[in-house]
TrEMBL record:
Region (Interaction with substrate tRNA): 34-37
Binding residues for substrate: 11-16
Official protein name in the record: tRNA dimethylallyltransferase
Subunit relationships: Monomer.
A GO MF term: tRNA dimethylallyltransferase activity
Organism: Chryseobacterium rhizosphaerae
Top EC category: transferase
Length: 305
């Protein structure tokens, strides 16, 4: 039986480093399930692995698409499983890493057979959004499915439309649909999380945004201005700076909003992961000994599966 180690945790907690350390130990490759890092034009604002990090272990699904390409979670599930099958020919263990909760779920469990989008519902919801704003969609979803509302990216209108559409079509909460895992996978899955005191995590997130600005995030976003209507760019770090370029916000305020929205996203991720009982945690800033203990735990787990 082959093994998949999935490294999870909130944004900014150091998943990339741990994934590389594990990949080097197991002499294997890394599959990313960070849906924002798929886009090659968005390196800085998504904290994509650096050239040095990419050289430390082979990575897949990093910068493999252009923001102009539409890429669904269903396509990702198919592509990632195909890549896993390929990698398992040469490796007993592969590493999965990323904080996009639904994308990780797609790989380790499979997405449920949800109904196709209903055009009538979509048009109706689009009209509501055009007339009353995204806040109205947020309110509808919160009422219909408070559990999913807790973890969804509430600024991504496509996710809101999709969830409400499915609820209207099936009469069942979206969170119930996605809670049932589909066909079991033919590989073992071990989930490793990194945890830190919330204050420390928030400090890291704030600091990381400052570093992104130093690395040239402003220029990166400026170069993508013509694509600002695309879904890929309706995301933290980009949406806020477009408002600066539009003259709506000043730069300091835009940067503070990036920090605030990144912290909010981390909070949603923590809510999601807290519901799982199968994540083995290591502390942020783990020592050499902690890493040895983790490896021991992983190897024992593989033997017991």
């Amino acid at each position: 039986m082959k093994n998949l180690i999935s490294v999870v945790g909130p944004t900014g907690i150091g998943k990339t480093r741990l994934a590389i350390d594990l990949a080097q130990y197991f002499n294997t490759e890394i599959i990313s399930c960070d849906s924002r890092q798929f886009f090659k034009e968005m390196k800085i604002g998504t904290a994509s692995p650096s050239e040095e990090e990419l050289a430390e272990a082979p990575h897949h699904f990093i910068g493999n698409l252009s923001v102009e390409e539409y890429y669904s979670i269903g396509q990702y599930e198919e592509d990632a499983l195909q890549k896993l099958t390929e990698l398992f020919k040469d490796h007993d263990t592969v590493i999965l890493v990323g904080g996009s909760m639904m994308y990780e779920k797609a790989v380790i469990e499979g997405l449920n057979d949800l109904p196709e989008a209903d055009n009538e519902n979509q048009e109706k919801l689009q009209a509501i959004m055009d007339q009353e704003g995204i806040e109205k969609l947020q309110a509808i979803l919160k009422e219909l499915d408070p559990e999913y509302f807790e973890v969804v990216d509430i600024h991504n209108h496509r996710r809101l439309l999709r969830a409400i559409d499915v609820i209207w079509q099936t009469g069942k909460k979206y969170s119930e649909h996605i809670a049932v895992s589909q066909d079991s996978r033919d590989f073992n899955v071990i989930r490793i999380g990194i945890e830190a005191p919330r204050e420390e995590l928030y400090d890291r997130i704030n600091r990381r945004v400052d570093i992104m600005m130093e690395k040239g995030l402003l220029d990166e976003v400026k170069g993508l201005e013509k694509f600002k209507g695309l879904t890929a760019l309706n995301t933290v770090g980009y949406a806020e700076l477009f408002k600066y370029f539009d003259g709506e916000w000043d730069l300091d305020f835009a940067v503070s909003e990036i920090k605030k929205n990144s912290r909010r996203y981390a909070k949603r991720q923590l809510t999601w992961y807290r519901k799982a009982d199968d994540i083995h945690y290591v502390q942020l800033g783990y020592s050499h000994q902690d890493f040895e203990n983790l490896l021991q735990w992983i190897n024992d787990s593989f033997r017991n599966k």
